[in-house]
Every structure is written in C-alpha cells, then in structure tokens.
Amino acid sequence: MVSDKGELKMDTFLSPEEVSYLTGRQLKAKQVDALRKMGIPFFVNARGAAIVARAAIEGRAAPLPVVKGWKPKVMGG
C-alpha cells in the first residue's frame, strides 16, 4: 500500500476503510456479521470495530509460535 506521501506502507491489519470495502457495510456490527458469514478470521476491539489481519486476506500463513518441547528430568531435560 502507498501512503499519501508516496511511501510504501505495510500494515499488519486492514484499515477501517478496507474492512468497510471488504464487507460492503458501514456499521461496525454489520461488518462483524458479514465477516462471520464470510468465514474471515478477525477480532473485535474495545470500540466494537472488527480488526482483520492482512495475512488473513492475502493468504499468507501467520508464523506459528515456537513451542519448546518438554523432556522429563530423568531423560536429561
């Protein structure tokens, strides 16, 4: 995405305008309903706005958290 200053801008989340365009809805509650029906992962912030990760729309896989394996102390863990 390019900002008004011509700089390349990579946001983690869709802007409110992009969420509105994606859902075709202006009201926050209707945007939430539309996203649920579309099966797009999102969360709702404290203001009731739907927050959508750009990766969910672009098809990029979100990085998985690194989980350290458990090993019993008997085995040297």
From TrEMBL:
This is DUF4224 domain-containing protein. InterPro entries: DUF4224 (IPR025319). It holds the Pfam family DUF4224. Residues 13-57 form the DUF4224 domain.
